[in-house]
Amino acid sequence: TATATLTVIVQDINDNAPTFLKEYRPVLPEHVPPRKVVEILATDDDDRSKSNGPPFQFRLDPGADDIIRASFKVEQDQKGANGDGMAIVSSLRSFDREQQKEYLIPIVIKDHGNPAMTGTSTLTVVIGDVNDNKMQPGSKEIFVYNYQGQAPETEIGRVYVYDLDDWDLPDKKFYWEGTEHPRFKLNEDTGMISMRHGTRDGRYHLRFKVYDRKHTQTDVPANVTVIVKEIPHEAVVNSGSVRISGITDEDFIRIWNYKTQSLSKSKAEKFREKIANLLNIEKDNVDVFSVQLRRKHPPVTDIRFSAHGSPYYKPVRLNGIVLMHREEIEKEVDINITMVGIDECLYENQMCEGSCTNTLDISALPYMVNANKTSLVGVRVDVLAECTCGARNFSKDENCKNNPCYNGGRCIESRYSLQCNCPAGYNGPRCQQVSRSFRGNGWAWYPPLEMCDSSHLHFEFITRKADGLLLYNGPIVPPETEEVMVSDYIAIELERGYPRLLLDFGSGTLELRVKTKKTLDDGEWHRLDIFWETENVRMVVDYCKSAEIAELEDGTPPEFDDSTCQAQGTIPPFNEYLNVNAPLQLGGLYVEQFDPTHYHWQYMPVGKGFDGCLRNLFHNSKLYDLAHPGLSRNSMAGCPQTDEMCGRSDTTARCWDHGTCVGSFNEAKCNCRPGWTGPACFQQTIPTSFKPQSYVKYALSFEPDRFSTQIQLRFRTREEHGELFRVSDQHNREYGILEIKDSRLHFRYNLNSLRTEEKDIWLSAVAVDDGQWHVARVTRYGSAATLELDGGEGRRYNETFTFTGHQWLLVDKQEGVYAGGKAEYTGVRTFEVYADYQKGCLDDIRLEGKHLPLPPAMNGTQWGQATMARNLEKGCPSNKPCANVICPEPFECVDLWNDYEC
Q1: Quick one: where is this thing mainly located (predicted)?
Q2: How far, in Å, are 274, 501, 511, 751, 799 from residue 565 at the CA level?
């Protein structure tokens, strides 16, 4: 092979209009005769060597209003800017700032291309202030949102007196009327009031007097009312947010209109009333606690608000409601909303070249917005775009500070890890409610899917109805005409009993269908796995258990027919990522009716309501909590339809104490929690200590499945290496091995008996030699395998999910199953245990869900016998680490199991 280089030269065409060279904001003082205001230059993105740029021509837009045309003129200077052309803007009269503070002048610029491009840029001329008016008494109200009651000493706003001049601060001095208030400070030169740290909630009345040296006015009174309200962390993390354009932060809170010289309700207050009205709650339960200017010219402002019934409403509900009522909010509050739910990852390749995750950065330093008669001190909150896939970024340590446990679970932090103690019924590793039920006319809203450059979404569902929408994430309202359209969406539904996936990254819709052997509306649980990256998409049904496989031992390549269980396709170019910023909807669609052609979709979900249950919804190994949707209708937590089956027999009804009942619409059975066994999971398993050169060899009384393997066990160790469990063929050529290497958990497997096709998956971000009990689980279907530790979420999960090469693992049920390492006999009585698991314990070993015995406490179960066992001890005692340790006073030695701490 050789490499050749192809050079493609892209020719420039004149497709960009010229704009101002920079942001001009000249200041023209009030009461001065006509004069030159500013010289303006232009720039153009096109190639000037192809004559697609200068010389430029400038003129005042003929459509400009009469006041502008009577006040300013724009003249062309052809020789200016070295012959590139320049505009000279001059005033035609004198101005009074108290009448109008700034003027917007539209200037038309034309380039030299063929054909020429023309664009309009707007020049802002600011009228400068002269102190030509006397001041009069004034009053002001300041609202302070004190985040967690912890605000440091902070500026909260300036003393206000009524004065038509607004640039005359240097002429003024400010004083307390009586003694200084102990909780507040005043800067006498600027009039800025500061609130001291530790100020409690309440109303504070402050009185000041002001002096103006130019007009020799003294003792003009000014009153300030300060309202302080604590805002809890819960309100901030559960806040909704909107981005508005054309309005500054001051405009949003202002109550004084200087043009009409009158008071009116602020936009912030109107917005608050509208939100309360839409949520049908008291206005006092809504807080608009953060108003922050994002960009000055043209202005862009971010607003955050929270609302509560008994707990705080979820962001997905607040943002969803604003989206659905966006137009009426814009009209009644008089704002232009450009984004609902501030999402810095929404526009592809704007912040990041690939994966992008929003993080909420809450600062202890407040953010002050100061308008004349009012001021708002809010919480400083920034949405930061991190260019990583958040769900797979394990660089930050886990701790209980971030409240990782859902639904009232108690977070317990040990030296090495954390775990959640969960209330009954919440079975996720972080107390998530794992299932949700729908009746065919409902839906539930959850937070949208995060943006990752390669994603894996999987869940299980059960139904007896042939049609129903399982999941949708995408637009819920028609697009706004003047904004960048984001048309991305994903939809998964059952159509006539077969799964159908629709995926659109913004440049066309991909449809995938799988025609399974039997339809999936059979009242049994089914699993769907959806994978997508920048181009390729695939959908796998039930781990491809129904695939037709032919494998011969003569070395011919295996055959794998996946047409009944897997579909693959490519995304239409050129968009590469799924960017969604609307509620993730399960079980049905709650959207404003719109015409799908607006979004240029080639396919649409049928969108019929789903009748059945969903469970174990994972996106990139993060398990969704289905307990409390942001908004829902005719949907409930859990799955009453299968719970009813569980209640029918005594064993399954009683297995909740130490197990979970796994029911379909047809039957139910008990799955015991790790460490428990027996028909109703009432029997506790007994662990075994493995000493040096220890192992157990098994003979199975059942035929292991060739296509799939499930291994589950508990282990506890402080050693960095050791083999926990293995299954293999007679000659150890095909195998699956669960082991610890360098303190990390690995599953290594090879399905080709003639030459190695070994795969190895491991959990790189978790050390397992911490002396704690852990649960390891391996699930293999063909060449696809998953490895899970302690519930298998986030850093405790890894997978390789492709069906390539050989798919069968032939296990020798007499010679191929070992725990604790594989023994090789070196003589009649001597043996060597390879990869010996020692100074550790094992408990509750299950193969394909069947309990295997652990000697010496138990030598056999109905599923298998321990035919050889060496160097084992019943139970899992510590090795008395405190025996020879003397801790200095007042410390005492604590046994941490094979380790100690003073």
Answers
A1: membrane
A2: 50, 13, 15, 21, 19
